[in-house]
Amino acid sequence: MNRRRRIYEGKAKILYEGPEPGTLVQHFKDDATAFNAKKHEIIDGKGVLNNRISEYIFQNLNDIGVPTHFLRRLNMREQLIREVEIIPLEVVVRNVAAGSLSTRLGIEEGTQLPRSIIEFYYKNDALGDPMVSEEHITAFGWAAPQEIDDIMSLAIRVNDFLSGLFLGAGIRLVDFKMECGRLWENDMVRIVVADEISPDSCRLWDMKTNEKMDKDRFRRDLGGLVEAYSEVAKRLGILTESDNPAAKPGPTLVKG
Q: Is 252 a domain residue?
């Protein structure tokens, strides 16, 4: 995999040309960013944990029939994915009031919402990823009405799966961000879940203590980000119980 052609580099990942047509290699970096990269640090071990957690979630989604771009993990930091056309939207599913929702609407953080709420944000760092409506999405051609329906259907299915998965690990799924892409199969195109799903893109609180186990630890200067991500991985069965990542230069992971 040496001297691969770099296709794209984002804040937390790099995409390389894949070994076969229609594939890419997704590399997880140790970069931690917040507030559209205004805050930035390198946190050793973060990329390894996100790769493994995202692999676990995407493989399980594939297994229950939710289409994703994920094919298989290649190594500790990389996975093989299908090449898709990313739809320029961030899809946020909220179960509990937190973050910008609490700020915008004056709802106390931690308030259980009457039902899950799906929001759309236009992926544009220069504009601060503004919130948009379905009218904006169709008017500017970012996605067709049927594609929006497909995206919302996927978002509901992913939310149901993740809520149950984390509940079983003693973790409350407050909200999460999801991205989707268009996957061409011959003359057919379908919408699939893309990018990653990890503690970088979810708000995860301990069920008993409400302790934050996600990137808010970095956003809010709480510290202990790798320890929190490691705890999520342990509870999902990805890390062995005997590991102590805080005492090591990098987390030791179960071989998959």
A: no
